[in-house]
Each structure stands twice: as C-alpha cells, then as structure tokens.
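Re: How this chain folds, sequence and tokenised backbone to follow
How to read it: Take the token row as a discrete description of the fold.
Start of record: The labelled sequence and token lines come straight after this line.
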Amino acid sequence: MPSRMAERVSLALRVCACVLLGLAVFMLVPLPQLRGAQIDLALAVTSLEPDALAGLLVVATPLGTAFRGDFVLCAAALYLIDWCVGRACTPSRMR
C-alpha cells in the first residue's frame, strides 16, 4: 500500500513540474493580448514559490518577455524529489 501512495505522490510531483515548465514557456510568448494573463499567472505562481527562489534568475528577453528561471528551478527541484521518492520506494533487489 505505501508504494501506491508513493506512486500518487510521484505523479503529482511530475504533473506540477510539467505545469511549471509549461508556464515558463508560456511566459516567453510575446503576445500583447496575453500580457495581462501572463503577469497574473506569474504573480500567482511566485506567491507559491519559496522566498529564496522567488524572482531568482528572471532574465529579460529581446522580445520584451522574461525567461522565468525560478519556475525552471522549482520544476527541477520537483523532478528531483520525484526521483528520490521513486528510488526510496523501489525494492532494493530491483536496483
């Protein structure tokens, strides 16, 4: 039963990481019609991030958008935690 719970946690972590990467790509799209939505989404996600990562590695692009390095770092951390959960729940004979 614990492995089933770990699988669910692992899946949730992967989904959250994919959403963060998708948002990082969405922030690179330079459409003026979407600018308000991009800012609102960035503020909402930034409020959920740890304070140490919020706004870290945000780089302006020549198109007037921003590469959100903090979103990518959070996604990488979620993928790392997902991998650790998977390794911890894998029986040692299968490693």
